[in-house]
Amino acid sequence: MGSYNPFRLILVSLLCLMIAVVLSTVNSSEDFYELLGIERDATTKDIRRAFKKIALSEHPDKNPDDPKAHEKFVKINRAYEVLKDDDLRKKYDRFGEEGLKEDGQGQWNRYESWQFYKTEFGLYDEDPEVVTLSKTDFEQSVFGEDIWLVNFYSPRCHHCHDLAPTWREFAKEMEGVIRIGAVNCWDDRPLCTQQGVQRFPSLIQYPSREHYNGARNLKDLVRHALRQVKATVHSIWTGNFKAVLLDPEKKDQPWVISYCTAEKEREGDSVGERLGCLDSDDTLKLAAILNKAVHVGSVDCIASKSLCEKLKMKRALLCTTPQEMLEFDESKQIAKEVLRLLPALTTLTTEQLQLARENLKKKDPAQRPLVVYFITGSSEPDNELRKLPKLVPQFKVALFNCSTDATLCDQLYLTNHLPKVTFFRVGGEHEFHHGRSFAADIAAFARESFQSLVHVLDPSSFPSPVTDGQNIWLVDFFSPHCSSCLQLIPELHKVAKQLGDVEFGTVDCTIHKEICSQQQIRSYPTMILFNNSKPTIQWAICIHLR
Ligand SMILES: *[C@@H]1O[C@H](CO)[C@@H](O)[C@H](O)[C@H]1NC(C)=O
Ligand SMILES: *[C@@H]1O[C@H](CO)[C@@H](O)[C@H](O)[C@H]1NC(C)=O
Ligand SMILES: *[C@@H]1O[C@H](CO)[C@@H](O)[C@H](O)[C@H]1NC(C)=O
Which of 24, 152, 449, 509 is 20 to 30 A (C-alpha) from 205? Predict the structure, then answer.
């Protein structure tokens, strides 16, 4: 082992290199972002969707009477070609069109037919169940806790088009069970090459990186996906009914049980009755959606006739303990119903939240760390978040309504940035969640924040004590709208866990504009090392793919 050099570790861990988003904007009437009608922090998918919309109305094929149509469309096409390419976009952001002089201007005069944009463009951009992944969020998404099946496609391949309707169906059917993604390799060529994609479509499972080589029909895809699910369906019969339901180890979660007579047909059963039955695949899907929050069991009412008769279960029915009965037709709907039946998150009063924060500050062992969902107005969080307390039993999960106490939310700089999930640590620090707001994502954030301290800096903590020279500080100046910034924060946590002698902090430049302009932050994210009060190293960071 060589000598321990923490800063080399930071360098290795963060692979800091390039400039991400430059703040200064280029003002010209031909601004590429304005041409496409998008924000400067738009994602590749936003860019593609915006371009497609314009292409369908402004394309010369559609405007044969407009002599300027070609000229106009070339400009729009050029804006799109530049902004969809990460490297060109960075050059454009920094230097405007001047920066593009050396890049193939000529090729941007060529464009595709209207029909192409209509049918062959971003196959899954309009499907909410299929997550369109790109270079910026790929790693962070697929190498987490969930299982992903990702379709690497090219809009120019026939088989990809043939597969599209099936893939959409598949994504709908698997919603909440496993994650379904798509990568447009026409736009994200380097990502596809780097993931070893050689032909289209390639279906790859993550995080294991196994290729799916089975038949590309719904039945086989679903069967394959369900084999990957790790949730359990408890088999219940007359003999074990009481023991299972009273098992002290299973008391932490409520139960939902499917009572079913359908799988083995009986004479006299009407078709209507049989249709209502959840088959074993559906039960498994339900178990996957409710995993770790609700136990799922199934009773075969043919084999356990006496049990079902005693409980008066005559038809295929689903019963949650203790007493709700649900009629159903598919697992997704049942999952929704079950989530609705779970207890709602507790709403804290201002006094309760203040007291909890004081107790955390005093390190009162009776006070669990807090995960608080701050809301405003009447918008309630999705029922899916009712799973959260079960996913993080070591923390207390609650809701706080900023409409009832704006002062407290002002103090946390939350006003105008709601809803926002915040984690309150032992010791009094807090941290904000910037990622997706599914229960599993919030749980992962809270666990990470619990394990390693990254200070959220604001005018009360910056410049003092950061620049007082007591400690070495590494501060990340970021915007929650920049995707490479959001990739960096989990990395900071990883490094903070390993480096005890350096303090880590973040400044959200969309909230604390004065701090960032005073530090002359020109791009996101920027890292500054404060050693004996002098900022010594300044890095702009870009995370590279594995
Ligand atoms: C950009 O320039 C135009 C005129 O050249 C001006 O009207 C507009 O306000 C400017 N926009 C910004 C954001 O400076
Ligand atoms: C939050 O408080 C406001 C004002 O008291 C109220 O109108 C709103 O319905 C509350 N929101 C929720 C989700 O309860
Ligand atoms: C911090 O400053 C001290 C003294 O000026 C110096 O010895 C040390 O190497 C510096 N650390 C870093 C990481 O620059």
Answer: 449
